[in-house]
Description:
Helices cover 16% and strands 34% of the residues. It is built from two helices and eleven strands, in the order βββββββββββαα. A hairpin with a 4-residue loop joins β5 and β6.
Amino acid sequence: RVLFRSVQITTTFMGLIDFDTTKQKINVGLWMSLRWNDPRLVWDETNPERHKLFGGVKRLTLEPETVWKPDLTLYDGVDQEQARIDRDDQVKLQVSPNGDILWIPLLFTEVACPMTSKYFPFDVQLCYLKWGGWVDDMQTMNLTLYKNQQEASTTYMTDNQIFKVVKTKQLINTIIYEDSGYGFQDLKLFLWLSRNYNGFILTILTNSLFLCFICLLSFLIPVASGERLSLSLSVVIAITVYQLIATDMLPIGTDTQPCL
C-alpha cells in the first residue's frame, strides 16, 4: 500500500561557488529543508512503561536510508552523481514522537545557466534549479512551500567577488501529462546574479580609453620623426590584448552581441 505524503519544502542558499561564464554553468551550495509526516514512526514519549524502548525519547536521529524520503531529482544538473538528493553521504534526519520528520540535506551541485551578454559587463544573469519527482506523482507526493516562503533564505550566504545574488524566488510548478493523466510537481529556485563590474571598468574600459587618448596624442608627433607609426601600432596591440581578455570572459556561443 502506497502512502500519500505532503512534503513541505524550502531552500537556504549558501552561496555561488563558481560561475563558468565560457561554458555557461554555475556551481552552487545550498540547504534544502524537507518536512513530512510518517505515521509508522509514531511513539508515546510520555509513557516509559508502555514504550520501554522509546519512552522518554523526545527525538530520534536516523540515517536517511532507513526511512521513506521524498523522490526528488535535479532535472537540469550537469553531474549525474549529484542529481539525486538521497545519496549515501547525506546528513541524518530527525524524527519527532508524532511522526514529523525534518531532513535538511546539504547540496553542492552544478547546473547549466544560459547567459545573456548584451549588457556585458553590466549584465544580470537569471539562472534556475529545478527539483522534481522522478517516480512519485501527485497521487503519492504533494509538494508545498514551507510557510509559503516565496524567496530562498540567504541568511548564511557567502559573498562572491564576481557575481552577487540580488534576488531569489522559489515556486512549486505542476505539470499534467495529457497522454497518461499523471501530474508531477517540481520546485524551481530562481537566482538573479549581478556582475561586479568595478574590476572591468578599472582593468579594461579605463585602460582602453586611456590608450585611445594616447593614440590621439600620437598625431602631435611630427611625421618626420618616424615615431608616430610605432606608437600607434603599440596602442593597437595593447587594445587588442584587452579585447582578448574580455573575449575569454564571454560564453563560447551567444545569440547576442555585447554593447561594449
